[in-house]
Amino acid sequence: MIDILPIRTQPTTASRLASVDFDHLEFGKAFSDHMFAVDFVNGEWQEAQIVPYGDMAVSPANSALHYGQAIFEGMKAYHQHDGGVALFRPLDNWARLNSSAERMCMPTISEELFMNGLRELLKLDAAWVPSAPGSSLYIRPFMFATDGFIGVRPSETYRFMIFTCPVGLYFNKPLRVRFEQKYVRSAEGGAGYAKNAGNYGAAMYPTKLAQNEGYNQLIWTDASQHQYVEESGTMNAIFVMDGKVVTPALSTSILDGVTRRSVLQLARDMGLTVEERKVGSREVMDALAAGKLEEAFGVGTAATIAPIATIGYEGHDYDLPVTGAQAFSKRVTAALDAIRTGEGADVHNWMVRI
Ligand code: COI
Q1: Domains of the chain, start order
Q2: What CA–CA distance (Å, rounded) separates 106 from 144?
Q3: Family per UniProt (predicted)?
């Protein structure tokens, strides 16, 4: 199989590492020295390459640009307590990339090709993994159609790539969010569970309207009744209500988040009751009014665990109680940080060392 060919590597002769201000990292602005790329042609993945990060040429008729056959992942590598580097749950991202690929009529990728590409890229750019608390190396695997053809049909050729960025916190303060009850992110049977580019582009306009009103993100509700929580911006949403950890059940319209899954596992490990079910916007607001909504937060790879301070609902803003040191969101953040940096026991074998 072509998959297991060694990766042709062209190291940079002009590292940009020294030009990056690691004390003031902004999400997604600094890119590490190298990128991984492999093309799918004639029904198979070709020889993979690692080359200096940089622009590339595409046909103006590229079908990803016209019809949106483009998918991506977001994952992270962490500086380890003992000086090494480790990836957090990379196989979960690999599996989700393939599930997105199937939904978008794109070829899947083998575990070997994905993991070899990641490992080699990270070995070459290991010095880019930041070590300050809260920072990490964000990894962006993605795939797009490369046919120069504007007939509407799945492309016959594709490129899979990975680049990385040293990042700090995505949100630096608790969020103001509001329930969205007009626009829809995704409907049951749609492609909301896939990480395809169009889901994000289509969310920008309603999100911008909310941002113009002073909110950071939306909490999307279901497409048919606008009653049930879907997800929040680029994150899954979790609530602590009446002592239980409650989150919308997965469906074809919700992203199966790796952080969501990890937080729910840690909640169960802590002995908490976890409910994955329909969560009504009215239920959340009633719980808040009755003093039973203890916490609400978003969870995602980029956002990590992002506490929600205020929820807008039907034209009014409601503040959540201020959380204490024992809040679940704080305890689970600390537990995840300990696993990710190698300071805590990794009982679920989530970390993969480079
Ligand atoms: C991630 O959390 O990795 C995401 O995909 C969000 C991103 C669009 C910033």
Answers
A1: 8-167 (3.30.470.10), 175-341 (3.20.10.10)
A2: 8
A3: Belongs to the class-IV pyridoxal-phosphate-dependent aminotransferase family.
Q: For 226-285, what is the HEC assignment? A: CCEEEEECCEEEEEEECCEEEEECCCCCCCCCHHHHHHHHHHHHCCCCEEEECCEHHHHH
Q: Can you read off the two tokens belonging to residue 290?
A: 């009755």
Asked if 47 and 8 count as a contact pair (C-beta separation under 8 A), the reply is yes
What atom in ligand 1 is closest to the CA of residue 72? 5
pLDDT digits (tens, 9 = 90+) for 172-198: 899 999 999 999 999 999 999 999 999
Amino acid at site 241: M
Neighbouring C-alpha atoms within 13 Å toward the C-beta of 301: 24
Question: 171 CA to middle of ligand 1, Å?
Answer: 12
Nearest to 123 by CA among 67, 176, 164, 81: 164
- Where b means 16+ CB within 10 Å and e means fewer, 214-229 reads ebbbbbbbbbeeeebb
CB of 300 within 6 A of ligand 1: the answer is yes
In angstroms, rounded to a whole number, what is the distance separating the alpha carbons of residues 245 and 229? 14
What does the buried/exposed string (b/e) look like for 13-52 if buried means 16 or more CB atoms within 10 Å of the residue's CB? eeeeeeebeeeebeeeebbbbbbbbbbbeeeebeebbbbe
Model confidence pLDDT, tens digit, residues 84-105: 999 999 999 999 999 999 999 9
Centre of ligand 1 from the C-alpha of residue 121, in Å: 20
